[in-house]
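Usage

Read records sequentially. Each one opens with the input sequence:
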Amino acid sequence: MNDQYLKYDALELAQDEAFLRWVREEENSGAMQWETWLSAHPEKAEAVAEARLLARALIFKEEKTSPEQIEQLWARIHAATPAKQARKPLRIVRWGSYAAAAAIALLLAFFFLWPASGEPVQVFAQNGKTMEAELPDGSQVWLNASSSITYEAEQWPENRSLKLAGEAFFEVRKGSRFVVETERGSVEVLGTSFNVNTHDGQFSVECYSGRVQVRAGQSSEILTPGQSATLAEGGLEKENFEASTGVAWRQGHFDYENTPLALVFAELERQFDVSIEAPDSIRQRRYTGFFERNSLDSALYLVCWPMQLESNMDKNKIQIGPAKDAGE
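and closes with the structure output:
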């Protein structure tokens, strides 16, 4: 076999015709060449495994996907792929290698941009991860941990509407009205950037650019940059905030002011994919401070120490109680 394959990464392998034939016909005798080559070059095992994942996604979808759509998809992947001399990971959290990030990006593109006809598209960020997604019109969505969006791709040109569960930041391209629906309220814009949070039963919206119309029940508010709306018992409450600093959670920073520890613990669980146990007497206490996503140990210290609490971890389970030298 040609030694050029030693220079190929997963994305390049997945586009090679000989490699694609091997993936399609792995049970045939022609597969021996690739098996022999892989045995001679075990250092390429990871790239080959990722390329096979990519290729199988391509083969799975190609019967339902037009050649034009496949060409558009490869163009998008190439456009989002940095050159080798300046290679950086794609913006999907916790995928360390370029090839793995490219594989996930391609799989997301196939299964989210071109789902089976009539099926709604769902993009989901698991606990401990955040995710960036591109909508059919080029609008961008950043999903916080344990959050999802659902929309109808086929109807998108006529109806830019999606459902959100959790928290997300949107950068919306100008065009027809763009609607975000949640269980407790909705947001309508034309072209703007804004954040919506529905975690833990809340409904809050922050406007960073443009104008945002927020509705919840009989209450409605128009927001401009630096204004937020939060659903309370009496309806939407409008406040000002510092928009120039950007969206804190996208920077891995979480600020709290007089917030029940139950809500702080819930965010820790989402960001670090852990389970936190604490008595109600502690969960009801109020916390002012912050934590960052870069370290679980540091985050627990920043939350527990000023509250005279201590944490004990067993795998992904955390017990929080009063510090030994402090009363509850």
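Summary fields computed downstream for this record:
- The domain at 115-250 is CATH 2.60.120.1440 (Jelly Rolls).
- Confidence is low (pLDDT under 50) at residues 79-99.
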